[in-house]
Amino acid sequence: MIGSGIVWRMAWSNLRKQWKQTLLTIAAGAIGAMLIAVSFVNYDSVRISGERWIETRLGPISSKLTPEEQLSAGFTSEQVALLEKYVDERSTDYRVLPYVGAEATLRAHDSKGEESGVLKSVLVLGFSTEKAARFDSARAELWSRGIGENEVILNEATASQLGVAAGDALEIIASDGSKLLRVREITPEQGLTGFRDYGAYGGTAIVSEALAREIAKIGEGIYPAIWTGTVNDSLPDRAMFILPELNYEIHYLKADYRDKLERLNFTIIIGIISLVAIASSLIFMRQVLVMISESRRGMYGVLRAIGLSPGQIGAMFAAEALLLSLLSALVGSLIGIGAGYGLVSLFYGTYSDVLQRMTGMHIPIHPHLSIVGAVLLFISIFVFLAVVSAFAAHKAGRFPVVEALRGGGERLARKGYKHRLFGWVLTGAGVYFTVIHFYLAFVETPDLSGGNLLWVCVSWLGACCFLLFLLIRLLSIMSGPLSRLFGRLGIPPLSVMLATKYPRSQSGRTYTTALLFALIMMIVTFTVTIMGLITASGDVSQTPQTVLGNGGYASYQSESERDHIMSVADGDDFISEHVEAHMISEPFMIEMTPDWVAQAILPVTEELLKRELPPLAERDPRFGSDEEAWEAVLNDPGYIMLPYFYKTRDDVFKPGLKAGDTAAFPVYEYKKLRAMDEPKVLLFEKSLTVAGFLQKEAYLHVIDYYGETFMHADVVDELKAFGFKWENQRALGFVLFDFDYRDVELAQQLEDRFALNGVLGFTVPYLNNSAEYLMNKQLGIGFVGCAVFSGIISLMGLAVVQYRTVRERGRQIAMMRCIGVPGKQIYWMFMLEGIVISAAGLLTGWGIGASGALLFTQAARRDMPDYMAFEPSYLYEIILPIMLGLLLLSVLVNIAPARAALKLKAAEGLRSNDE
Fold first, then answer.
1. 448 pairs with which residues across the strands?
2. pLDDT, average across residues 35-55
3. 810 plus 846 within the same structural domain
4. What range defines the domain where residue 612 resides?
5. CA atoms of 872 and 869, how far apart (whole Å)
6. β-strand 762-763 against 552-556: which pairing, if any?
7. Helix axis angle, 823-863 to 507-537, nearest 10°
């Protein structure tokens, strides 16, 4: 019957006649569709932009090989030949290209020979162009032309930053000199010409292999690294051949880049918001469709009486429901795609230039969505809504014919044995989920990996549904207390009594509307709390942005490099004018615990005490201030200042230590590789008194300072014989600079001045972390905005339910008007119904959202203790205004239905049927 043209004409006519209800239904369904579309555009944008970025940075490069021996200068020519022979003869899926890389500064010169542009931290690459033509076959023509000794090839991005064109002069500046080159060619940034490794390089330059060796100070025949690439697309990113005759470390560049891409994709957060909005939208759509079918009950009763079957009635309603689903999917998809493009540009684009300058691993994200993707998106949304329509249509034709013909009045639910049994099962499940959720939130923090995450989310949602059910049942039996409460506000008791009566008789409808508010408030609270935690942990205004109280540092690998840095700092007028002081720091690692990792050993000096000292979590009670405790370590070799983990973990030092305790501190032998059951060898032991414990590190800028442990300078000299460096600690030491690091312009100028003088490793943590923090903050605001925006579903649900309530209760209102009930009391009856329903949902969502946020926060702290070290405050200033704003809007939404009830004339109400 659904294929009949008259059925579709009747459906379209019904939608046009009740156009206000139609618009509300379409808008509610469209909101869920919009959020699905936003999430899909975000996913597609990150995926497509990421693939293009990987092609730009890597192209034919899949991995990088380096010698297994850390101190090795590189692969010898014999080792390279052995590797190339193996690949050529036995592994047709791979290609290899040995190369030399170095860091330098590029300075452009105009036609008059004057400086026109500077770009620091450029990765200079040199390799055999003949081998490059085979390795990068797509650009074989470029490499077959070779590179002269005085030539350089730049990519378009690097050339644009320098403002140079082909044929221009370019000076390349290294740590021990400079050389003038000619820009031979400017090429697209792709593969070899766009490679920047893992470092924060500002650009890429290709020079002859001989010049690259000269800059990197690497002898002939030695290659620090070898690129590998696959010609078989079916191979996974982490696939690699093994050469038994040669040991090497494999750096899976393409796989690591894809991992970063996955971490950047915020689809998970947007997806959680979207799922709640989708669930809310589907719940609302179902409720509205059920209400529409009930308003057609009189007409459908007549059709049943003349012989139509329940299935035929359902088909008639299905046509109307499918039209609503189609329009909702179409409107939601179109608006959602547009909103997705705007949000991707806003979220990822605002700080892209800053991030690009700060870090070479920044992925520029641009909005993308394929036509096929858009079509599939629309079909998926329509199918979701059509399923809901099918369930509503199935119910539409199943009703008692006599009752439908009578019309009016409220149908009393006939609760049989099966219905009661089903209710008890749901109640038991609700109790179970609630107990599980609160146990996980407040007693035992779960592991959120794998299937555990799904279980946590299910119990969380189940607890929300059950607690809302309990609250609504509680409200339904509290008409007396509520009457006294609202009576003090001047609201008539009769209005309170009637306002609690109807929700009891229509408990399903009341619960559905309140659940919309609860779900929205739950996800808003959760999103605000989680994003607050993420932004707080990287807040440059609240987390330390210095190294030993210094705003910047430059690492060095040799004494000569250290002397060069010092001479630049003293000799450059701009640097010496703005840098207040500088100091030398050469930390080393010591293993002082039998079951824990090593910690950095540092001396307390007069220079250190002039800086901003690290705050203490606890100090020896014999000292009146933190300054006194630091002074004690400076002057007395018997004192030590310990890192935070000594205070919180008894298994680090047994028995647990307190500030003021004196204990014997051991020093163990360091071994790079140690069997799981192999005990550490004790080398040395010294008795020291704990002057204090440092606060927990919220952000570690340099791995060399992990677990900072401060001692008297003489004790540090005594321990140097046992010190070592981890494999990823390449610096001999650091020159630390004290200046106003919060002055971003000054920090950038200092970076440029150091780079121009050949100091390429000058770093300002505050500068590097500011852009990422701002982007995270902006993302958080966007996510919260999406969650709040989905709250419109709840408001629409309340509006439709209240409008339908006015129509359904027309006879009741008429009867009350006839017996003299004032209009004010009828007005407040409808107002209170809406306020109580929305308030119940908002309070439940707030409470259960906070417990869910606590659960996820505790899990994050356990898995990432250093990153989540900062204790954020609960963001009442954001959550409360959102909740009060939604409550105020719900009050405003109730005004129109309440006024509509007053406009309904008694005679009209007595004649009315459910419409």
1. none
2. 79
3. yes
4. 552-767
5. 9
6. antiparallel
7. 40
